[in-house]
Amino acid sequence: MKKGCLPEHMLYSPAVFAVVDSYQIFISFDCPAIVKIIVGQSVFCDDSNGILRSETTVHKITIPMEVLDGAAEYTVCFREMIDRKPYFPVSSDERRITFEFRPIQKDKEDIKIYLISDTHNLTAEPITAGQYFGDSPDLLILNGDVPDHSGSSENFNTVFAIIDGITHGSVPVIFSRGNHDTRGLYAEKFIDFTPSFQGKTYYTFRLGPLWGIVLDCGEDKDDSHEAYAGTVCFHDFRLKETDFIRSVIENSKLEYEALGVTRRIAVCHIPFTYTDHSPFDIEKDIYSEWARLLREYIKPDVMLFGHMHASEIWRRGCEYDSKGQSADAVVAGVPEYNKDGKNRYTGAAVTLGKDEIEVIFNDSDGNIIRKEIINYL
Prior knowledge:
Blueprint: E1 15-19, E2 22-28, E3 33-39, E4 42-45, E5 47-48, E6 51-52, E7 58-64, H1 65-71, E8 73-83, E9 90-91, E10 95-100, E11 111-116, H2 124-130, E12 139-143, H3 157-167, E13 173-176, E14 203-207, E15 210-215, H4 234-250, E16 263-268, H5 284-298, E17 302-305, E18 312-314, E19 329-331, E20 334-336, E21 344-352, E22 356-363, E23 368-375
Parallel strand pairs: 11-12, 12-13, 15-16, 16-17, 17-19
Antiparallel strand pairs: 1-2, 2-7, 3-4, 3-8, 5-6, 8-9, 8-10, 11-21, 14-15, 18-19, 20-21, 21-22, 22-23
Helix pairs in contact: 2-3, 4-5
């Protein structure tokens, strides 16, 4: 479904985020509305304990993966809420729009992923680069710092605009939080605008034969750094996340060792396996433990990072492998701002093939920067 076909008040095609075994569908409007989604014979609502929500312009509806995968389409139904009076509230006639959905099939051999991070509010350029696979990507990954910060709710429009421009509401999306996302008034409301699992910004997911883990480092400097002025507690957050990784390992038969899993990936905005220079050289013990757990137990086929504003492959044992990478890492996402307004963005097209992983770095000017191959371990 192209954006030009969207009904009035719907700003973007839905963003279909994959989290654990469900899709969390986010839809943005320019007015108060009540929203439902129909999949087959089932109706899913955005409600609060039975009350259809209208005092928000961003709606979230969760649908089990097996339901949406089986139907291969969903219908968004909404009514503009004109006056929500205590008695006889007034709303518009219902409008409906149907979107096709293309799940990753269980027997899929070549999984086409487009990887974007660090757009820092650039929109048109990441969309252009992200259209590398045309209308046939299998998965879009937004790996942090898509808005430049969370100081305004309008900044989240960057997330929904990029997803709209690349997926048109028809392809699953994986989202991870970046360190710039933790800054500003709406940082504490981040999960109102982006996916989460039980309120946490780290989780696993399963899409066909692909299993993945999304990790979140939070900020890139110590909690005591003056830039945060005592407003963060990420050390404790990371300790809890370590327990989460261990719980994933304890349930490996239901996670990365589950029947049908043939590909594994690890997604994180900050490349925690690299020890950067001061003041970014934090949490060496915690991050070393994360690296060990992934290396010894989870064993992803590839690690996907952002943060560095680079287009690189970090091979195991390279100069950036400070803590023992569990696999080669794709570090992708380069925003470039020019005074003449001709900005540029470079992302990565990652194809998880049967025998190897192909990585193509491309930019919004139509250039192929480089092609590299990662071999499965």
